């Protein structure tokens, strides 16, 4: 550690140690040691004995250091001697190098002087060379100017563009030195050659059919020859118009010619599909028009006063041809093909519309009309499909059934009809959605973002179809005879009523929600038909159909009763022994109607029945009077009393509305049919004159109907009240009103 201390003091502490250690003036081995501070601290802090010990220790350290230094000197003596010799030799070599450097500097000075002389000579030679090159260049230019007429004459016939470039380079020089006779002669000869070239270019422009590139080059050269731009623009448009007219004529040749007589004939199918037609029109006409319009702007600047009406007239003709071709797409065909064709048409027109923005509205109108026309065709296709489904349903209802084999029931027919129509509508919406797909360019137009979704699809397709369906269904009840069509079968009326009711309950809301999801309307778009309004129309159609079904079925049963009353001799009839067959048929028909209606409608709510409904006595006087009380006192002088009592009974009984609207349940429907049937029976009995046995037959028939019809009605009092009125009218119209015993009536009805 002792040798390390002096070396450390010589080299100093390391950077890290110096950074970490704080400066201490009392550290005898530190770099900041201060003897005065150290001695002051030692005298103040150490006693005398410690001071003496410290002095002895320092003396020993000093002697040890002197010994170490002597040892180091002895060990390195030879090295010090060698280093001294080396330094002496280096000094001698350095003096020799200084002498050589002085000689080298002298030589460099001499070389610099020589270089300066050489540089001056080179500059003088370069200056003379530049003057000589200038003279040579001037001679070459003069030679080129002399050769200009010959070159122009040589190139004017074969390479007019090269001749124009040559003349453009020489024109400024010739014009500048025109005051010299030689230069003026060269200029005059050049002008004559260029004038002849201009005449040939004019002739070519007027007489030849040039493609767009050749036309542009020809007009550009004439402009370089300083021909009038006004005349050249007219000739450019004339030549371009002829070429574009030929393109339009080629497109029109693919379309069938219109009938000059104006007769409505079906044109033959086109030779190619709409996509091929649009491709040819886009590549030929639209591409050429874009190229010519761009060339016109390049040649004549931004002055488009002639170009815009010229291009607008041709574009209008092209749009008309495209619409004529679109009109030939009479069937639905492949909607994706139509969308691709319209998308390609719209994309190819973008370049033209950038040059002529005035045609954007017309192009968008073509696409919009094509989309609307396809939506209208889908609406007609949906209507045709629905009518076809109705025809299938009618055929299934009217088809004869082999014995022991039943056909499809009304629930199956209804489910098939509803599922088919809804599936077809969803398929149509999927096809129409192709017009608003993200990869379709024209879908970004404002029309397809707002008006198309609302006016064309939601209102023009979905809402229009639902309303047409309701009107068509209602038309079966509002007068089929006026339309020249046969009357609809009652089962079809019932099925359509249930279909419209299902539309009101769930289908309409589902269809509108699906449409709004696939074709979202804008918040600021046109007004839409609310769902509740459509549901109200569907419910009204269902109500009208169900009411008409009740009237038709009631009229059928009433017709049997009317004929049975009108064709019978009620004065000369024999004593009744059986229920008439027509009454049994009435009960059978009502039972069949009950089964039919129960397939599509719920049971409904009945008023609480009395315990003896099926056993209730049927009186020929009134339901409020016992049969035995007035019968013994009945004499021919008493008809007025019986009629008076019947009228008084009507005043206090509940009025029965025969043709009131029915509810959407089985009980209400059957009640309406029974009311119509019994009301007809009542009116027919009022018009007949009866004998005693005729009255008793009416009594037996009425009791039989009472036994079976009460269970079909919503309120048995309706059946009882109408049958009581029938009995009272029969008694009133009877010449010998002697009723049959109730027990006998019951026996006959049970046996029947």
Describe what this molecule looks like in 3D.
This protein is mostly helical. Among the domains are: 228-256 and 271-357, no CATH class; 378-398 and 408-551, no CATH class; 568-604 and 657-751, no CATH class. It is 72% helix and 0% strand. The chain has helices at 4-11, 15-20, 35-45, 48-75, 77-158, 160-176, 181-207, 212-224, 229-253, 274-300, 307-327, 335-355, 360-398, 410-432, 446-475, 490-518, 531-566, 581-598, 627-630, 639-652, 666-686, 692-709, 716-732, 742-751. Helix 6 runs antiparallel to helix 7 (181-207) and helix 12 packs antiparallel against helix 13. The protein is elongated, with a radius of gyration of 60 Å. The termini are far apart. 29% of the residues are buried. Mean pLDDT is 77; it is low at 621-640.
Outline the secondary-structure elements.
Layout: H1 4-11, H2 15-20, H3 35-45, H4 48-75, H5 77-158, H6 160-176, H7 181-207, H8 212-224, H9 229-253, H10 274-300, H11 307-327, H12 335-355, H13 360-398, H14 410-432, H15 446-475, H16 490-518, H17 531-566, H18 581-598, H19 627-630, H20 639-652, H21 666-686, H22 692-709, H23 716-732, H24 742-751
Helix pairs in contact: 5-6, 5-7, 6-7, 7-8, 8-9, 8-10, 9-10, 9-11, 10-11, 10-12, 11-13, 12-13, 13-14, 13-15, 14-16, 15-16, 15-17, 16-17, 17-18, 17-21, 18-21, 18-22, 20-23, 21-23, 22-23, 22-24
């Amino acid at each position: 550690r002792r040798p390390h201390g002096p070396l450390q003091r010589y080299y100093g502490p390391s950077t890290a140690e110096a950074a970490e250690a704080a400066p201490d003036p009392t550290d005898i081995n530190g770099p900041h040691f201060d003897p005065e501070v150290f001695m002051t601290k030692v005298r103040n802090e150490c006693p005398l004995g410690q001071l003496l010990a410290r002095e002895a220790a320092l003396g020993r350290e000093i002697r040890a250091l002197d010994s170490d230094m002597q040892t180091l000197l002895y060990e390195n003596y030879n090295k010090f001697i060698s280093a001294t010799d080396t330094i002496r030799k280096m000094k001698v070599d350095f003096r020799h190098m200084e002498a050589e450097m002085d000689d080298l500097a002298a030589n460099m000075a001499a070389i610099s002087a020589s270089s300066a002389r050489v540089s001056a000579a080179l500059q003088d030679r370069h200056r003379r060379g530049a003057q000589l090159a200038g003279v040579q260049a001037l001679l070459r230019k003069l030679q080129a100017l002399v050769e200009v007429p010959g070159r122009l004459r040589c190139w004017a016939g074969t390479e007019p563009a090269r001749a124009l470039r040559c003349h453009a380079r020489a024109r400024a020089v010739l014009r500048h030195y025109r005051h010299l006779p030689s230069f003026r002669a060269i200029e005059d000869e050049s002008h004559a050659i260029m004038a002849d070239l201009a005449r040939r270019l004019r002739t070519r422009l007027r007489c030849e059919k040039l493609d767009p590139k050749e036309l542009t080059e020809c007009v550009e050269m004439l402009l370089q020859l300083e021909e009038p731009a006004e005349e050249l623009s007219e000739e450019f448009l004339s030549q371009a118009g002829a070429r574009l007219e030929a393109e339009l004529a080629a497109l029109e040749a693919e379309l069938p010619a219109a009938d000059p007589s104006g007769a409505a004939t079906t044109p033959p199918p086109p030779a190619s599909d709409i996509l091929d037609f649009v491709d040819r029109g886009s590549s030929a006409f639209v591409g050429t028009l874009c190229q010519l319009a761009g060339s016109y702007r390049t040649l004549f600047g931004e002055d488009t006063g002639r170009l815009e009406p010229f291009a607008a007239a041709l574009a209008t003709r092209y749009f008309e041809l495209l619409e004529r071709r679109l009109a030939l797409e009479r069937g639905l065909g492949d909607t994706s093909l139509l969308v691709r064709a319209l998308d390609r048409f719209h994309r190819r027109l973008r370049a033209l519309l950038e040059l002529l923005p005035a045609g954007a509205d017309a192009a968008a109108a073509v696409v919009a009309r094509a989309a609307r026309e396809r939506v209208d065709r889908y609406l007609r296709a949906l209507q045709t499909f629905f009518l076809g489904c109705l025809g299938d349903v009618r055929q299934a209802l009217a088809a004869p059934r082999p014995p022991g084999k039943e056909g499809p029931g009304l629930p199956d027919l209804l489910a098939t009809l509803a599922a088919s129509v809804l599936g077809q509508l969803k398929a149509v919406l999927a096809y129409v959605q192709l017009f608003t797909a993200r990869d379709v360019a024209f879908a970004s137009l404002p029309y397809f973002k707002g008006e198309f979704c609302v006016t064309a699809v939601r209102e023009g397709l979905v809402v229009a179809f639902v309303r047409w369906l309701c009107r068509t269904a209602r038309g079966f009840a509002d007068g089929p005879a006026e339309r020249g069509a046969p009357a609809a079968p009652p089962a079809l009326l019932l099925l359509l009523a249930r279909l419209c009711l299902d539309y009101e309950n769930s289908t309409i809301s589902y269809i509108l929600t699906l449409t709004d999801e696939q074709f979202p309307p804008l918040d600021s778009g046109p007004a839409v038909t609310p769902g509740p309004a459509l549901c109200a129309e569907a419910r009204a159609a269902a109500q009208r159909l169900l009411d008409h079904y009740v009237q038709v079925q009631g009229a059928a049963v009433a017709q049997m009763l009317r004929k049975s009353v009108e064709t019978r001799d009620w004065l000369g009839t024999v004593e009744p022994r059986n229920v008439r067959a027509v009454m049994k048929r009435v009960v059978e028909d009502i039972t069949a109607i009950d089964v039919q209606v129960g397939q599509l409608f719920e049971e409904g709510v009945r008023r609480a029945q009395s315990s003896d409904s099926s056993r209730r006595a049927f009186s020929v006087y009134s339901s409020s009077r016992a049969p035995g009380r007035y019968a013994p006192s009945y004499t021919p002088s008493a008809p007025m009393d019986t009629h008076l009592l019947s009228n008084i009974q009507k005043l206090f009984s509940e009025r029965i509305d025969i043709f009131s609207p029915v509810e959407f349940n089985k009980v209400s429907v059957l009640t309406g049919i029974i009311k119509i049937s019994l009301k007809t029976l009542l009116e027919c009995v009022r018009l007949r004159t009866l004998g005693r046995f005729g009255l008793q037959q009416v009594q037996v028939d009425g009791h039989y109907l009472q036994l079976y019809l009460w269970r079909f009605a919503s309120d048995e009092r309706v059946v009882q009240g109408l049958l009581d009125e029938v009995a009272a009218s029969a008694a009133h119209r009877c010449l010998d009103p002697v009723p049959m015993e109730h027990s006998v009536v019951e026996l006959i009805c049970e046996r029947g």
